Amino acid sequence: MEKYCFDNFVIGKANQLAYLSVKRTIKKLGEEINPLFIHASSGLGKTHLMNAVTDVLRNSEIQWLNGVEIENIPPKSGSVLIFEDIHLLKEEVRKGMELFELVKSYIQVKEQVYLKAHVNDKTRFGCSNI
After folding, report:
1. Residue 15 in contact with residue 45, Cβ under 8 Å?
2. In order along the chain (130 residues), what is the average pLDDT of each group of 10 residues?
3. pTM passes above 0.85
4. CATH homologous superfamily for 6-121?
5. Disulfide check for 78: which of 11, 63, 71, 87 has CB 3.0–4.6 Å away?
6. What phi and psi, each to the nearest 5 degrees, are found at residue 13?
């Protein structure tokens, strides 16, 4: 499998803002764009960007969560939070305060949060659904 890193990320009109935003957060972790919420259709580089973040921050303590696998929101356990496929969280988990509290626990101490969701014409997802 090809390594996901910034050097081989293909930048286009549909993902340029996400790319630039991620690069900016890495320079100033937790300071400016926090949390960073990336949502787009399939194939636009969301996962590539999150893996590139992991590559650059490999010496950081990263809490990596996936909405498919989460039954309950775990407590904070890192200095960076990457939450993939947040749109796939079960409804009862999305409605609880645990997700809010987890994100807040990072932001309060100026540690970076990345949230990623897949969105297409058939899937309606917005902050009001979290």
Report:
1. yes
2. 82 95 96 94 92 94 94 94 93 87 96 91 48
3. yes
4. P-loop containing nucleotide triphosphate hydrolases (3.40.50.300)
5. 63
6. -60, -35
Residues 6+ apart with CB under 8 A from 106: 30, 34, 35, 76, 80, 81, 112, 113
The upper half-sphere exposure of residue 113, i.e. CA atoms within 13 Å in the direction of its Cβ, equals: 19
pLDDT value at residue 2? 54
Cα 60 to Cα 24: distance, rounded to the nearest angstrom? 17
At 36, list the tokens: 């960073």
| H/E element, 113 | strand 113-118
Strands (E), 16-99: 36-40, 62-66, 80-84
Tokens of 102: 């987890």
The single-letter code of the amino acid at 4 is Y
